[in-house]
Amino acid sequence: MEKIYGIDLGTTNSCLAVLDGQPRVIPIDGNGIVPSVVSFDGSNTLVGRLALNRSLAFPEQSVRSIKRLMGTDQSLKINNQTYKPEEISAIILKYLCQEAKKLEGLEVNRVVITVPAYFSEAQRRATMAAGQLAGLTVERIVNEPTAAALFYDLLSVKSKDPGDGKDWRYSLVYDLGGGTFDVSVLRMGEIIEVLASTGDTHLGGDDFDAQLTNYFISHIEGSSVDLLNYRPAMARLNFIAEKAKMELSSRGITSVDETMISGPGRRDYSLSLSISRSEFEDLTSQLVNNTLKFVDQALAEAGLLASDIDRVLLVGGMTRMPIIAEKLSAIFGQAQMPILDPDLSVAKGASVQGALITGENVEQVLVDVTAHTLSLMANNENHEAVCVPIIPRNTPIPTTRSQLFSTAVAHQEMGLLAVFQGESRQPKDNDFIGSTPFYLNSEALRSTIEVEFSYDVNGMIHLVAEQKGHKRRLAIDLDSRNPYSSAGVVTDFASLPRNFREFFEIDDDDDDDQSQAEDLIDVMEPEPASQDEGAEQKWNFVLKRAHNLLSSMEDGEEKIKLADLTKRYYKAINEDSDNLDDLEDELLNLMDE
Amino acid sequence: MFRTALKILKVSPQDDKETIHSAYTRLVRRFPPEQFPAQFKKVQNAYHELTLSDQILSKLLKEFKDCNNKFQLTAFFCSDHLDLTSTDPKLEKINNLLYQNQASNKVKQILENIDLSAVEYRKVKK
Q1: Which range (A264-268, A395-399, A404-408, A460-464) has the least confidence?
Q2: ipTM of model
Q3: CB A537, CB A359: distance < 8 Å
Q4: Residue A77 pLDDT > 60, yes or no?
Q5: Residue in A399, A455, A549 to test binding to B, most B beta-carbons within 10 Å
Q6: What are the residue numbers of the active site of A?
Q7: Which A positions 354-373 lie with beta carbon below 8 A of chain B?
């Protein structure tokens, strides 16, 4: 099966990795850490290190930190051309693939792209769109801290027994990157379970640089205020700040001596000062404290105390700042802090996830969660539209949840199903994902509507609505994988009506309490229709597991039995035989023993 | 629902959280979300059903206290977390609290249902 590559599309740097037995980063731009910078030089488009260098001289023709704009309508105007954020990201993705081909002859078509766990649906869709624009098949959007944990788990798989009787660990991933911050709490053992995930998609290294840049400006002699609106000077100062920041990670003090910083009106400025690590820490203490608030929140959501955490994983270049490890040690004194490469772990983890999808990797099982609550807009008793949570945040995915609503007015003909993402009850404070009308049988004076949301591992939101007792049913995909084709789905919040008559109401009838139970009655029915899309990957998975088990078994009756059953299963797949499901069950049962 | 959950995870009501979790882990390894989404969902629902965390319970309690009228109470009772079939001693506290509240008939009825399932659960446990 064709390989699936892992891509970390970062704010500051991007990285491409593949699993060749072990995860390996493709050494693009030298060490594989490719600056996420694009620079337009006439008809020539530069990406990576070359673009970064050019961006100092031509900031107005260059784009940095585009990730921060993903999922917004903001577009950039460069050399009289407008670019959407996903178009810029697509240029970076294309560059990674082209270089992989140039360097090693690799054909990169199928990819997993990572995003911050706290990215919204709109930001995920934009990332997906960037991949498609680059001509790639995006197999999965994966959360960055989860990817890092997956990579770490792979590393530690051989030394799994911690020797204290428990064969699992509570781990906390602290991921502070160039522009985004995530914290995830996981339970890692036989399986990897994400228990809680939170963060801020606009908090990262860029903010630390900005603090330092401002500090520099206040120390430039003369009317330095003018520089604030002068892009070339700001770009240069920002670059100096970033460099000083990095130096302060390994040194207690650094000095800056820059002359000829050209300001507006051909005036030159100079900057000469030294700054100590503790001064820098003071400047940025608010930012660090903010991240710690999210750490507390994630622990609370996972229902754990700091003392429960066995291991803290540091991910993202900003975690090189010594104060961060210090602060975390103060909170998690007892926990280990294994050394991981903060720049490469995410991309490597993404390549591991790619192998999970193809079935190449059957040893690890990952259970991730939703980072935001999915809700439906409905009326409360005062005819006010509120968001009613259907899938709460931190629910393991894939998941299906349903809830009952009722019609708002007599003989209602239509109700709008408007889907929101976010933690507020107020629709205006949440992200609007899309809405679609549901036409009812209006003979009924009043009816009950069951609304069911499914969220699958691909990030696809599937919506089913049913008018109870009237056989009216609507099923629609709110497809985050394909942002340009959502038939009949309105995605502009402003165009939503504000009249309560066009929505449903929170249900207070009591005639239907068994609906949720129904799902569970058929205890373990085999998956319906084995012809579905994932079937081949499932077969691969089962066969690979059997194969691995066989090669580790000693000769004997058991082994012959398993080998025989595996052969019959393989035959059944090829002949599309009726008893395939039974054989699969039998095989899985045998492997469990 | 509670019994179905026990059946899916093949555990008994006497089992502690760790045992339930290892039963869950075994089944998730067998039915990874990647390859077996439908079975995974069932295992997940069953596990969710059997493990209502302290944190969720205390959050529920707070939400309940904040309910001021029938609508809010109904919304509260429709919320997904409310399958009070946990082994947690806090269950008793919550039940008492629910009864102290002056609720509408509808809510009282729901309360009785909830209590029944809790009573049933305790019987099973004994």
Answers
A1: A264-268
A2: 0.82
A3: yes
A4: yes
A5: A399
A6: 8, 67, 144, 175
A7: 356-357, 359, 365-367
pLDDT for B73-121, tens place per residue?
Answer: 555 554 444 444 444 444 444 554 444 443 334 344 444 444 444 444 4
Alpha carbon B23 to chain centroid, angstroms: 18
Among B residues 34-63, those touching chain A with beta carbons less than 8 Å apart? 34-42, 44-46, 53-56
List, in sequence order, the alpha helices (H) in chain B. 2-9, 17-30, 37-50, 54-66, 70-78, 90-100, 105-125
d(CA A383, CA A156): 55
A389 CB within 8 Å of a chain B CB: yes
Q: Is A532 helix (H, G, I), strand (E, B) or coil?
A: coil
pLDDT digits (tens, 9 = 90+) for A525-571: 444 444 455 677 778 788 888 888 887 788 888 888 888 888 888 88
Residue that wins the pLDDT comparison between A586 and A244: A244
Domains belonging to chain B, first-starting first, are 2-50 (1.10.287.110), 54-125 (no CATH)
CA distance B80 to chain A (A): 8
Domains of chain A and any CATH numbers:
4-201+311-367 (3.30.420.40), 205-285 (3.90.640.10), 374-521 (2.60.34.10), 535-592 (no CATH)
Question: What is this structure's pTM?
Answer: 0.82
SS3 A402: strand
Residue A102: CB partners within 8 Å, gap ≥ 6?
none
CB A182 within 8 A of CB A115: no
